[in-house]
Amino acid sequence: MTFEVLRDDDPRCAVLEAAGYRIVGESWAARLRDPDPAKLEAAVLRAEGVTVGELGPEYADAWHALETANEKDYPYTPATHRVVQPVEELAALWTTGRVFGALDGERLVGATYITLQGETGFTSVLDGYRGRGIGQAVKAASILALLDAGVRVFGTGGAALNDASLGANLAFGYVIEERWRSYAPPDDAKA
Predict the structure, then answer these.
(1) Full domain range(s) for residue 131
(2) What percent of the residues of the chain are helix, what percent strand, and what percent coil, each to the nearest 5?
C-alpha cells in the first residue's frame, strides 16, 4: 500500500480527506535551542540503577541486541516505521554521530544515537527498565556532550502515539515545530 505523508498544515490534507483518504498515523518533529545544562545533568543523575555514558563501537553487538529486543515495541506509523539495521550498519553510525547508553552491570539496557549536528536518530530502553528515567538520561547525556562540542540547536521526532517519548522531550524544553499525518488511500483503492 502506498501512503501519503504530509505536514498537517499542507492544504493537500483537506483534498485527501475529501477524497476518502484515512489518517493512519501522526508524527512530530521538535527543536531544542540552548538547553539548560543543569536540567540535563539532573536527568542523567535520576536514572535508577544504571551507569550512563558514551559508548564506543565495541558495543555494536550489544546495541544491536537491544534494538532487536525493542523492535516489536517501536510505534508504527508509515512516517516513523523503524527496522533494526544489521550490526554492521549500526557500527557504521559511529562515523556520523555518537552513541550513549545505560548499563546495568555489563548489560546494555538503553541507548540513543545522535548525529554530530544534534539530530537524535532514536532512543530505546529495554522492556522492564522503562519508566525509570533511563531514556531521558541517555538522551540528556548525548545533548550535554554535543553542547560541549558547540552544538546549540537539537532536533528529534517520533510517533504521536508514543506519549513517553513526547513527554520526555517536552520536559527538556523541545518545542514541536512540525506535525505530520500519514494517509492511506480509501478502502476501495486497495485492490
Answers:
(1) 4-189
(2) 35, 30, 30
